[in-house]
Amino acid sequence: MAEQNFRYISKKRRPKEDRRFLAGSGVFVADIAIPGMLHVGLVASPYSFARIRSINAEAALALPGVHLVVTGEDIVAGTDPMMSGLDAPKLRRYVLADGIARYAGEWVAAVVADTRAIAEDAAELVEVEYEPLTPVTDPEQAMSSESPPLHPEHGSNILFQKKWVWGTVEEDFAAADHRIAFRARWHRSSTVPIETFGVVSQWNQAQQLLDVWASIQMPKFHDLLGRALRVPGNAIRVHYDVDVGGSYGVKRGLKHSILGGYLAKRLGVPVKLMEDRLENMRGGDAQGPDRIFDMQAAFNNDGMIRSLKIRALDDCGAHAGRAPLQLGKPVGAICGPYKVNSVEYEAISVTTNKTPQEAVRGFGQAPTNFALETMVDRVAAHLGMDRLEIRRRNLITADQFPYLIPSGSTYDSGDFHTVLDKTLTAATYNDLIKRRDAARAAGKLAGIGLSTCLEPSGGNSAFEPLFNPKNETTTWMEASTIKVDPFGAIVVIMNTSTSGQGHETLAATVAGEILERDPDTIRVLHADSLSAMPSNSPVGSRMAIMLGGATAGAGKKIKASVTAIGAKKLGVAIDAVEYRDGNVVLRSDPSKKVSWEVIVEIAHRKFHELPEGMEPGLQASFVLEVPTGGTLPDATGRVQMYPCYAFESHIVYAEIDRVTGQVTLGPYTVGHDCGVMINPDIVHGMTYGGIAHGIGAALYERFLYDDTGQLLSGTFMDYLIPSSHEVPDVKIIDHCTPSPLTAFGQKGSGEAGYLGGPAAIACAVNDALSPLGLKIAELPMTPSVLGDLIATVENKRT
Amino acid sequence: MSEHDITLKVNGRTYRGKASARMTLVDFLRDELRLTGTHTGCEHGVCGACSIIFEGQAIRSCLMFAVQADGASITTVEGLAEPGTLSVLQDCFWETHALQCGFCTPGMLIASQTLLDKNRLPTDEEIREAISGNLCRCTGYKQIVDAVKLAAQRLSGLNAPVKSDG
Q1: Where are the beta strands (DSSP E) in A79-235?
Q2: Would you tell me which CATH number, out of the four given (3.30.230.10, 3.40.570.10, 1.10.150.120, 1.10.20.140), belongs to the domain B88-155?
Q3: Is A689–B140 a contact, with Cβ atoms under 8 angstroms apart?
Q4: Which of A426, A451, A466 is nearest to A85 (CA)?
Q5: What's the rounded Cα separation, in Å, for the pair B53 and B112?
Q6: Which of A17, A381, A502, A627 has a Cα at 20 to 30 A from A215?
Q7: A192, A245, A693 ranked by CB distance to B101: nearest
Q8: At B164, is the pLDDT very low, low, confident or very high (cuts 50, 70, 90)?
């Protein structure tokens, strides 16, 4: 379908969901209050590694208003451990520490009381006797056989270690004119939504049913919750119509929800568990990738990069969580947008005494893109070649798509050179260079950064079997249902929660496009987990592709039924009529038509006028398999990871204050090609927001730990989130290369900006530092880090 | 914990209630008055999600005890427009899609409205300054700045609203 022929898609339209938030009438989990509801307070370990000798809850239980105190022993007896996603059956992770606290902040006991304030008072009265152990905080030391394992039953701190070789890596390295090696470091940060995680749980004894309202964005949440609580899935109803106050991957409070469900079931009353900010930062288990990249590149005099060796060591914290799998998704774009002949990739995940990770926007791709782009810049520097020129030479050209990379994924479409050129023009690149050079002449540290990065989209599960051969998942399907009522009003039912991505607008726009009805008149609902069709939630930039595709599929079924009813009413064959604006008209004489209202009435009331064999009513569901999905990795680990690949090129100007190390950004231009945009304002908004996240990861945000495993940045006073002062006015330049794999040519874009921003900012900082002979490949480049680095040179001069 | 009777005027309506001495104003608004449009994000005065207009000033309601607000006049997001309608500022937020998840939005509206009350045609820099105490993780602030600019134009009669109530 050509872009210009769309009625509603790609047009400026006000998002459906905005109005309730503007009126202050969104319903977030914190807003849910059920009569008789009790509140949870948590007792957290002050030690990063300690054996729990005893827990005495007498004083806490004596406080008026306290109903219950539970410990790890209760949880081990009453629930099953959470799954790790790896083939590591001896890893056990319970929602409360099971005899050993493995990070500072790990929950040791939970208190239930009439109010949150009483619960917190009581938590302080719980006496826990600890026997401190020697913590492991350095990921490289953690790998040593001399480091005590956090999980003795597992036998080692190494959770996962595997090396894949795709193509003739050694031959290419031997044959190349040059080789470089360097280390890049992506320290631990996260997307840190302004809403913390919360869950309300209510057990109905008569129905044997647990109702759950949670600020959740998570595939398989409902299944995993039932498994841990030892109840069948049909005894849990997760309400997906709760508004989620931002997620960007991390709102996966399975731990919280198991605890809440256990408490609600045990007490027989509704229970609310809301993280406060401190709890969210230290014990919310929602920190992000923490990676050491050892990079090697082999390349020729002409700048062509022939082969890569990448070793990624990830410090996953105290429990596996989704961390190891975040090393998996980048396999699908392991050489970025470049023509690289062969790749070796070693992925290692280790446990240390830190807060566990959760899935973060991009699922490991942003750190990998940062390492790849740093590599490209270092190759250029090695050859004395321009950073733009080396990209132009290595970027895959538009005529090479579909393009198969060594690790087995095929890139669907793209026009990288055109996007880059449009970005350069919009950024007035030559003027930027003049500005930078003038600033340098005036004694400033000024630089220009650029990056050319991929955004894999359409979230599939292929990394799961790649990292655990016992897991043979080859579908992450998504469903959509459309219902037309007897008066013609349309409802679309989606099957998961939403956290700001505009899914209701997406589904209504697509249904409106297919059915040729005004999207503003279409209502979009979120099914609960018992009434829902299959969904794998909005992860991996998948919903434009998957919810959009499924809704288009359901819409086409409705359209076919309407057409058949209309043809019968007109007394002609189906191919003699045409669907037009919801009505059915005779092709040969469009003045003869059957209206939408008449057809809908036939469907609902006049069985005698329905085509033979057609179900009465007017409703359809469609379940979409991920395009290109359905296959397991081959013996060498080659697999199609995600189906669609969006592209972004960033150009950013930066100046660094020599004394404070503060980086000032802007102008900032980003060229973006995510195929056909369903709603441009929504796509642009996520891109601006992704860049803001990228600025945080590149310059400010870090979960910093001391050598004993104590978190030093557990508040918004020391974990610094960019404000409107730090985020410059960003200019987006759109380009559209449709995907051949999707309903309208759309690709995913939920991770836009974040996947290329940190790389571009790091590039700008290094350009600014280059006159001093300095370079840095470590994020975040905080003012103190840069100030100290600059001082090493400036102090020598004075 | 001692309980105190307090009286507040919120969104033009007088409320009487009991608050324990340690209850914050935001908890009182949310839990006692059930005005849940005001949100809590950090509860230590950084994120701005709990912003309200207190005696004409934008303040963080997590940093004030309810008892300190006895007798005060307060506007929350629920009071920015007549029920069932949107203010010009709210409508402009919709027009530019100045929000995604909606969690910081009430605080952003409060901060922006307070700016527009004092400064009818603010510059981009003044808008950024006014919202710099309110953190947003979704938008990167761009469409919020655009919304406030558009609202300023419309309120000054430079650009009539497309729809006053959406």
Answers
A1: 100-101, 107-113, 127-132, 158-166, 178-186, 198-204, 209-214
A2: 1.10.150.120
A3: yes
A4: A466
A5: 11
A6: A627
A7: A245
A8: very low
Q: Is the pLDDT of residue A528 over 50?
A: yes
Domain boundaries, chain A: 3-25+477-624, 32-133+205-274, 291-462+632-797
Q: What's the CATH number of domain A291-462+632-797, 1.10.10.10, 3.30.70.1230, 3.20.20.140, 3.30.365.10?
A: 3.30.365.10
User: Which A positions 732-751 lie with beta carbon below 8 A of chain B?
Assistant: none
Residues of B with Cβ-Cβ distance to A22 under 8 angstroms: 86, 90, 93-94, 99, 102, 105, 109
* H-type alpha helices, B37-155: 88-95, 105-118, 124-131, 142-155
- Locate CATH 1.10.150.120 in chain B: 88-155
**CA-to-CA distance for A316 and B59, rounded, in angstroms?**
39
- B93 with A24: Cβ contact below 8 A: no
Nearest residue in chain A measured CA to CA from B37: A24
Judged by CB atoms closer than 8 Å, whether chains meet at A715 and B42 is answered as yes
Cβ–Cβ gap A723/B97 under 8 Å? no
Of B96, B105, B135, the CB nearest to A21: B105
Dihedrals phi, psi of A582, to nearest 5 degrees: 95, -15
Of B112, B149, B151, the C-alpha closest to B134 is: B112
Q: Which of B41, B76, B109 comes nearest A195 by C-beta?
A: B41
Class for domain B3-79, per CATH? alpha beta
Domains A32-133+205-274 and A291-462+632-797 share a fold: no
Q: What is A32-133+205-274's CATH topology?
A: Aldehyde Oxidoreductase; domain 3 (3.90.1170)
Its CATH class, for the domain covering A3-25+477-624, is alpha beta
Average pLDDT, whole number, for chain A? 97
A200, amino acid identity: V
What is the maximum span of chain A, computed from C-alpha positions, in angstroms? 96
pLDDT (average), residues A613-618: 97
Out of A14, A15, A716, closest to residue B47 by CB: A716
Give the closest-approach CA distance of A24 to chain B in angstroms: 4
Confidence of residue B166 (pLDDT cuts 50, 70, 90): very low
State whether residue A684 sits within 8 Å of chain B by CB. yes
